[in-house]
Amino acid sequence: MAYVSWNVMSHRYLILGLLTDNPMTGYDIKKHVNSALGAATQASYGTLYPTLHKLLAERLVDVQEVLQRGRPSKKVYRITEQGKRDLQRWLKQPAAADQVRREFLLKLYLARNLPAKDVLALVANRREETEAMLTTLQSEKRSITDPQEGWVMDYALSVCQAEINWLKQVESQIAAV
Prior knowledge:
- This protein is mainly alpha-helical.
- It has 7 helices and 2 strands.
- It has 2 domains: 85 residues, Winged helix-like DNA-binding domain superfamily/Winged helix DNA-binding domain (Arc Repressor Mutant, subunit A), CATH 1.10.10; 74 residues.
- The protein is elongated, with a radius of gyration of 20 Å.
- The two termini are 31 Å apart.
């Protein structure tokens, strides 16, 4: 499955937003992102923990160590009042324009010197991947009960369907040449 690339700002506000709901460990944050937002993105520890440390340094979150018997202590992160204000300020700002950075588009652009059959195979492969992603998303949508998760899923479904339609048009144009 292809995932949207996050930038540092997205990580920052995703974490703050999740911590608004409940205090969480880094593991809890990663698990929640991957299950609830898996249609749009994935989270890695290599991104989450540096972002958490930066949020701590900026006093937007705080941390409490919870001792566990027979296991290492766990760190539970909470959003601070300053963090809530920062999140609210960001939520009210208009979204930045999307930047499409897909390897597929670069390959399609650079494929101008390939035979038409190879370009057609590249496009058909992407369409098949996107159709598979659409099927997976449609299956996952059935279990969503949270309205915000539903909106994110609806967006992901719409994007997949639009891409499939566009890819079919491109395939037709290549076949007509």
